UniProtKB/TrEMBL annotation, chains A, B:
Membrane-spanning residues: none
Name of the protein in question: N5-carboxyaminoimidazole ribonucleotide synthase
InterPro entries membership: ATP-grasp, ATP-grasp_carboxylate-amine, ATP_grasp_subdomain_1, PreATP-grasp_dom_sf, PurK, PurK_C, PurT/PurK_preATP-grasp, Rudment_hybrid_motif
The protein's assembly and partners: Homodimer.
PANTHER family membership: PHOSPHORIBOSYLAMINOIMIDAZOLE CARBOXYLASE, PURINE BIOSYNTHESIS PROTEIN 6/7, PUR6/7
EC number of this enzyme: 6.3.4.18
Upper lineage: Bacteria, Pseudomonadati, Pseudomonadota, Alphaproteobacteria, Hyphomicrobiales
Top class in the EC scheme: ligase
Catalytic activity reported: 5-amino-1-(5-phospho-beta-D-ribosyl)imidazole + hydrogencarbonate + ATP = 5-carboxyamino-1-(5-phospho-D-ribosyl)imidazole + ADP + phosphate + 2 H(+)
One Pfam family from the record: RS_preATP-grasp-like
GO terms under cellular component: cytosol
Species of the source: Bradyrhizobium oligotrophicum S58
Pathway it works in: Purine metabolism; IMP biosynthesis via de novo pathway; 5-amino-1-(5-phospho-D-ribosyl)imidazole-4-carboxylate from 5-amino-1-(5-phospho-D-ribosyl)imidazole (N5-CAIR route): step 1/2
Length: 369, 369
């Protein structure tokens, strides 16, 4: 198999997964159900995904020899996190198809490139400006106003790598605090709701979106997702359409998530794109139990060159993350009727660490008439 | 942990699974979702369950040293097949809890012991007789009549180790054909339906039965299961009650399946027990997609000392086995709306080999009124 993106796996073929966290683990479990093998590459010897595959590579992402050996062992490469080093992706892509493609990674690894890309599609985002110096920050802060959020262009997640700026803040101190020369200032969005759409796209262009999910964060970490989001149908349609257009414009193969804000400002509510995650996403975990096909299976089908499924939701679904020592509540959750408990097999329950999640599905009320 | 049956696993603990087929594989996948590790022991280097665990032991069941090392690595031992050699179970049970217990294995490994046990509970079976010689076969054939089925007492499955006897058959030839001195003659049951009940029992005595399943065999191999079985409620209640009583009488911990015949003989229909499988069972595969908890998770919860779930069925469920080269139809199945495809990752699609299965769920019709 060459580096072409035209992949067609057979049962028994092997998928290489970069990253060994819970997303890689759940991807590997979904692949196993389809008769596909996985090999996981991760620098962390305690990677939870290692537990569910026969072959694992424990090496740094900068280890070219390890990457080459890994590529030789697999038929296609995918990843569970967006911060795959570009050099690693290049080494792998020279030997095996990497899906989603490197260009999708490059677009979404940089907040500025990503926002430029989204706005180029005529899709709205918060106001933003490139900030590469204190002078640029002062100018951007003047144009965009406060409150605003200063973010590193790269490598931020779960609220890391960002500082909120209020009226009167000392911008020199804020700039020093962020500690980078590559930043973006975004207007703070007084949103009504945070929502996301998880979409899958196949190499042949087929796109399947899951229902819009409403997300509730706590300390910048996703705590609860609810599907469907309690928003008007037209807005949900707009959100799904945005995700489809983004996936198509990226010529994307696999699952991505688009995080959005619902804003109204006293007018009819609209949607702003906040962020694209070029991977399966925490806000799609409800699909494991609440839909006829999960985001993980959709991703595996897409990168295998297999047809996507048409997702049907089983009811009203709530997904609750177990964060840090909340994992200790697993025994109570096991006794809740209809609750499905997922534990990630991680060792230490450090504060803020995602240790597992619970799904609860309320059957759809019977249709009247 | 000692050899006691009082097990209480913590997330991150390890379950040892004897047997590396699709049942072991699906048990390991269910355990992974609960944050538990598995180690698989199997003599077959191509075991499909090896693909989904980090640690595997490839050794013969008679290899005492390998069994001891395996026991040292795990916190509890279970199995995916009833023909676990008694000596292996004994070696393991001296070091770690083995669940279900050796006594449940011993009762169900021998068709005669099993039928004696079932009838001792006041539960009906087909007429049967112990046959250890040609003379005994002649006498049993006279008493039981024809047609009848001569079966080896041990190690039969999927129609192997059995011969049907018709009026006028040469019993000497039949006896020679079976080639054992340890057999049982069973009256052939002109059944209306074949059904099964998959039941889970926890160490504290809690029993949870899945809904009664109706099974259709082809060439002695399960082809289609449907849940619920199209039988009157009272009969379904009787079938579930039988499974519960058997599990309780065996002081069973884990999942078992009881295969039964529905017979009427012109009278009100009744149920005869055909066979007990002390393990997860092909006729329970529909629970993976068609119920709020699967038979695999119930088994893992039971042997982990965790509370069982209360299974709720999602609708009318059909499970179709993909046998031999029927696996080649997986691509068509992937396109069937609502169908969930499971492939076992086996190599050669030999005739009669179970390669995968497909589940289809029709949502429950809305309740009227």
């Amino acid at each position: 198999m060459t580096g072409s993106n035209r992949v067609k796996l057979k049962p028994g073929d092997t998928i290489g997964i970069l990253g060994g966290g819970q997303l890689g683990r759940m991807l590997a479990l979904a692949a196993a159900r389809l008769g596909l093998r996985c090999q996981v590459f991760s620098p962390d010897p305690d990677s939870p995904a290692f537990d569910v595959v026969l072959n694992a590579t424990c090496a740094e992402y900068a280890d070219v020899e390890a990457l080459e050996l890994f590529a030789n062992d697999v038929d296609v490469v995918t990843y569970e996190f967006e911060n795959v080093p570009s050099a690693a992706a290049m080494v792998l892509a020279a030997r095996r198809p990497v899906l989603p493609s490197r260009s999708a990674l490059e677009t979404t690894q940089d907040r500025l490139t990503e926002k430029d890309f989204v706005t180029s599609l005529g899709i709205r985002t918060a106001d933003y400006a490139d900030v590469s110096s204190l002078a640029a920050l002062r100018e951007a802060a003047f144009l965009i106003g406060q409150p605003a959020v200063l973010k590193t262009r790269r490598f931020g997640y779960d609220g890391k790598g960002q500082v909120k700026i209020h009226q009167g803040d000392d911008l020199e101190r804020v700039w020093a605090e962020l500690g980078t020369k590559s930043a973006i200032l975004e207007a703070f969005v007084p949103f009504e709701r945070e929502i996301s759409v998880v979409a899958a796209r196949a190499a042949d262009g087929q796109v399947e979106c899951f229902d819009v999910t409403e997300n509730e964060h706590r300390d910048h970490i996703l705590k609860v997702s609810r599907a469907p989001a309690a928003i008007p149908d037209a807005l949900a349609e707009e959100a799904r359409d945005i995700a489809s257009r983004i996936a198509t414009a990226l010529d994307y193969v696999g699952v991505l998530a688009v995080e959005m804000f619902v804003v109204s400002n006293g007018r009819a509510p609209g949607v702003l794109v906040n962020e694209i995650a070029p991977r399966v996403h925490n806000s799609g975990h409800w699909t494991l139990d609440g839909a006829s096909i999960s985001q993980f299976e959709q991703h595996i089908r897409a990168i295998a060159g297999w047809p996507l499924g048409k997702p049907l939701r089983h009811g009203h679904v709530t997904m609750t993350n177990l964060i840090g020592d909340e994992i200790d509540s697993y025994e109570q959750w096991l006794t809740v009727p209809g609750a499905t408990v997922h534990l990630y097999g991680k060792g230490a329950a450090r504060p803020g660490r995602k240790m597992g999640h619970v799904t609860q599905v309320s059957p759809l009320p019977p249709k009247q008439g």
